[in-house]
Design a protein that fits this description.
alpha/beta; Rossmann fold; Alpha-Beta Plaits; 2 domains; four-stranded antiparallel β-sheet; 15 strands
Length: 223
Amino acid sequence: MTVAEHALGFVEDGHVVGLGTGHAATAFVRALAERVRGGLRIAAVPTSEATARLAREVGIPLVSLADHPALDVAVDGADEVDPALDLVKGYGGALVREKIVAGAARRFVVLVEGEKVVPVLGSRGKLPVEVVPFGAAVCRARLEALGVRPVVRLEDGAPMVTDNGNWILDCGVGPIADPPGLEHAMRAIPGVVGTGLFLGMADVVLVDDGGRIETRVRAGRGA
């Protein structure tokens, strides 16, 4: 059983499901579509236009957060997971919508491979931050003052534009000593829309450790 198939155990008939963005989320969407074709009745809220296109292609019915502001479960990947189940996300560029959907869900389930498990957030060296293009220069300067190294993410030689019409600054970091403090300082910068720090949000993390699925549950949250 793959980690995506394992995550299907958190989805029940009648659920409204948040669908993440990226490789792990894509595998889950395809696995979920198999269940839908088999009769499972669900609706889904995608975190990106790419995920929405895929969901339509494979026959998953979509709804909006306007119609369903409270979700039963959201399933997504992550770029880093620390021992407390805090995350870094956003390498796929959908961090703001992913955070909104995760925050709207009663349960947030995260799928990762073993290499994404780190001792300290920031260990992989990059923290994405979404910014308003008008204020990108100001955001860059303020982020540099916090000790990180922001670089505009490019696509075909131009700044990559998110589904929200914003830019991504990939901030070079080392192990982050105080993730909540850094999150607070970054969010206080005018023009910063959101960061890739997902703190206290994951309820369950499923780790694919060479084909063996390990379930990690945040303290106080039931699996």
